[in-house]
Amino acid sequence: MNITEIYNHVRRQSEEICSLLNTEDYVPQPVNFVSPPKWHLAHSSWFFEEFLLKKHLPDYKIYDEDFCFLFNSYYNTVGNRSFRAERGHITRPTVAQVYDYRNYVDMHIQLLLQLKDLQIHELVELGINHEQQHQELLLTDIKYILGCNPIFPVYDENINWENQQNSDSGFLTFSEGIYEVGHNGDGFSFDNEHGRHKIYLEEFEISQSLITNAEYLEFIEAGGYSNFNYWLDEGWAWVNENEIKAPLYWHKIDNEWHMFTMAGIQKVDPEAIVTHISFYEAAAFAEWKDMRLPTEFEWEAASFKLDWGKRWEWTNSAYLPYPNFKKAKGAIGEYNGKFMINQMVLRGASCATAKHHSRSTYRNFFHPNERWQFTGIRLAKK
């Protein structure tokens, strides 16, 4: 597909994700780290308007001046924005108006792409990948919104993500030596993957499988959430302050563990891969097993032999810049670089990741307490 076809395809995908929602589902924001579906649809359109149409399409007329304030996420360079925790307050514009906005932006992007300018095409490609990131956030935010509803509504009864299983088992051994990590320059990548460089790794062993619900249940039943010895100090405080006793979306009903899924509430499948795990929980589980989480460099070095893409996998690496990392000038430079503190790297992809949006060098990142994404655990041996 050419750039125009890819753009159109990705834009349709976002709307297909929302096609299963009722109008009332577009607005709630139960917690500040979740954004309403309506906001995602508008923000991904604002991105194209702000960074492409306003700057590169002659005589472009802004759709609505208020939209920049309402749907800017964190770009200080382009002006004021509404507070993240208050996105659920935006009952106006309506859902219908947001779809009109998307159509307006799409129409003008088609005109812009006719200019066949390489810089424009590169920015459109960035916008496409940005929208794919928001498609995953759309799905996980929708799940959180519905999961807060006491009747546990079904999003799509045909989605079976939470019951995915491993296809491999055992450990792989990698010898000590020099390895190269970082993007090699072929195809799209984000700036935080740049600065390909050599690293030295000691010999290590890494699991071919992710931890299952059955394995994690053993941790729970062994008192894993009540024994401080397994937890990092911050993790132990998080467990106690929030009364955490199991992964997110797990509920004990009639003395049996159930889990809220995209297909509604179901019994926990012991053979399925555990998901919605925080870094704190992943690290505690690894300590209980007398193992550890792999570093992001070990993960990347091993990735060509691993089956991945079902869960985002926590690593034991802080989110930091690679050697020679450079932020782009202007607002685009705010995309990744300013978040390189107090976050941990996740590798791979998840069942909710958009197709063609994963690669072995991709560096996802979240704070260690966050677990509403489809996150899991892969172990390495000490």
TrEMBL record:
<dbReference type="InterPro" id="IPR005532">
    <property type="entry name" value="SUMF_dom"/>
</dbReference>
<dbReference type="InterPro" id="IPR042095">
    <property type="entry name" value="SUMF_sf"/>
</dbReference>
<dbReference type="GO" id="GO:0052699">
    <property type="term" value="P:ergothioneine biosynthetic process"/>
</dbReference>
<protein>
    <submittedName>
        <fullName>Ergothioneine biosynthesis protein EgtB</fullName>
    </submittedName>
</protein>
<dbReference type="Pfam" id="PF03781">
    <property type="entry name" value="FGE-sulfatase"/>
</dbReference>
<dbReference type="InterPro" id="IPR051043">
    <property type="entry name" value="Sulfatase_Mod_Factor_Kinase"/>
</dbReference>
<feature type="domain" description="Sulfatase-modifying factor enzyme-like">
    <location>
        <begin position="175"/>
        <end position="303"/>
    </location>
</feature>
<dbReference type="InterPro" id="IPR017806">
    <property type="entry name" value="EgtB"/>
</dbReference>
<dbReference type="InterPro" id="IPR016187">
    <property type="entry name" value="CTDL_fold"/>
</dbReference>
